[in-house]
Amino acid sequence: MASTHVDEFSFDHPQNHGHGKWRRLKLLKLEDEHYSTISRKFYRGWKHPNKTKPQIRAIFKILYPDASLKPFHRYRAYVLTSPALRGKVKNPVNEQLLFHGTNRSCKLVEDTGRILLCGLMDCNLCSVIRNSFDVKRCGSKNKFKRFGNGIYTTSCSSKADDYTYNADESAKLRVMVVSRVVVGNPLTRRTNATSLTEPPEGYHSVIGEPGIDLNYEETVVYDNDAIRPAFLIVYGDMPVVEGKTKIQSIIANLFKTPCQTVLLGCVREFLFKNPVADSSSSFPPNDQTLYYPAPGELIHLNVDMSSHIPLALSILGTLASHYPLGGSQKPQAPPPAAAPVAAPPNAPSASGQTNGTAAQPSAGSTAAPKPSNASITSNTGSNSIPGGLNPINPIALCDYCQLRPKHFDGSKTHPYCGKTCANKKLNGVAPSNGQANNVSANSGNCHFCHNRPKYSDGNKTHDYCSKACARSANGPQRRGTTSGSTNGRNASHSPLPTSQQASSTAICQAPGCQNPPHSAGQDYCSIAHKTLGETLCLMCLQAPKMANSHFCSQTCIDDAESKGPMILEVPQGHVTFKSVAEQFKASWRHTGSSCPPVRRVYKIVTPAQSLAAYNAYRAAVEARGQFVSSGRSAGNENRRWHGTKRSCNLGDKGHTQFCSNTSCSLCSIMRSSFDITLWGKKTGWGRFGKGIYTSSTSSKSNDYSQNDCKSPLKAILLNKVVVGKGCKLLQDNTTLTAPPAGFDSVLAEKGGSLNYDELVVYNNDAIRPSFLVMYEP
Question: Where is this region: Disordered (predicted)?
Answer without folding.
Answer: 326-385, 471-501
